[in-house]
Amino acid sequence: MTIECGTERIAGCQFNLSVMSDDFINIILGSLDTTDMSKVWRDTDDVTTCVRGRVEHVFDVVKAVYLHAAKTGKHVEMSGTFSIGCPGDASGDTYMDTDAERMNAANTIGINQKAGCKFALYPMNTTKYMDVIYEQIDLSKARGVTVSPSHYSTRLDGEVNDIFNAMEEAFVSVQEAVSHTTMTFTISANSPSSRK
Ligand SMILES: Cc1ncc(C[n+]2csc(CCO)c2C)c(N)n1
Question: Which residues form the Thiamin/hydroxymethyl pyrimidine-binding YkoF putative domain (predicted)?
């Protein structure tokens, strides 16, 4: 049996927060609670949180969770995988009816927080994947972040808001060309180590 997607393609992200502080429970649970997740399907367990819905709401929520944790000043790291157009992903359709207004934009746009991030795009099911990826890495030069090559990934440095916006733009452009796309990332703020 083939599971068909609805008219809009469901996006999702599975991510975890790691907080280098004795207070990690409050920071993880507090960041999740402070974030408005009303426009996404959501599941949190002992390992990760998964959110699914329209692509703009998925990015809005993941960025907000990270900013609320990082603004504590603690060394906070997040790793995750975004996916869109997964052929088996259909049961979250109820969350696709929402409008495009981002529930967390007003509360997060003013949070200034620098971070370093490495991300990798994986356009599925195309033999031209390297062309698709290079086009995006090139574009991210114009998005207010410093872009540098890194093994198996691309590094983005700058404001957290700009980093997530750059990743969202790259991800959305790739999924327009390729039906199923995934993207992995690791972002770190307030690290005591200086950048190499
Ligand atoms: C985004 C995110 N979701 C879930 C976990 C798993 N987790 C580890 S400690 C903790 C709080 C106490 O139970 C939770 C929920 C995580 N790390 N980050």
Answer: 10-89, 115-193
Q: Ligand 1 pocket, 48 CB below 6 A?
A: yes
Please tell me what DSSP assigns to residue 6: -
Q: Where are the domains of the chain?
A: 11-87+110-189
Question: Are the beta carbons of 82 and 182 closer than 8 angstroms?
Answer: yes
In the numeric block, the tokens 């959501």 are attached to: 42
pTM over 0.95: no
Whether the CB of 29 sits within 6 Å of ligand 1: yes
Amino acid at 133: I
- Structure token digits, residue 61: 């929520």
Class of domain 11-87+110-189: alpha beta
* Residue nearest to ligand 1 atom 12, measured at CA: 25
Q: DSSP letters of 12-59?
A: EEEEEEEE-STTHHHHHHHHHHHS--TTSEEEE-SS-EEEEESHHHHH
| CA 83 – CA 55 distance, rounded (Å) | 9
Our mutation pick for probing the ligand 1 site, out of 24, 28, 34, counting the most ligand atoms within 8 A of Cβ, is 28
47 lines ligand 1 (CB under 6 A): yes
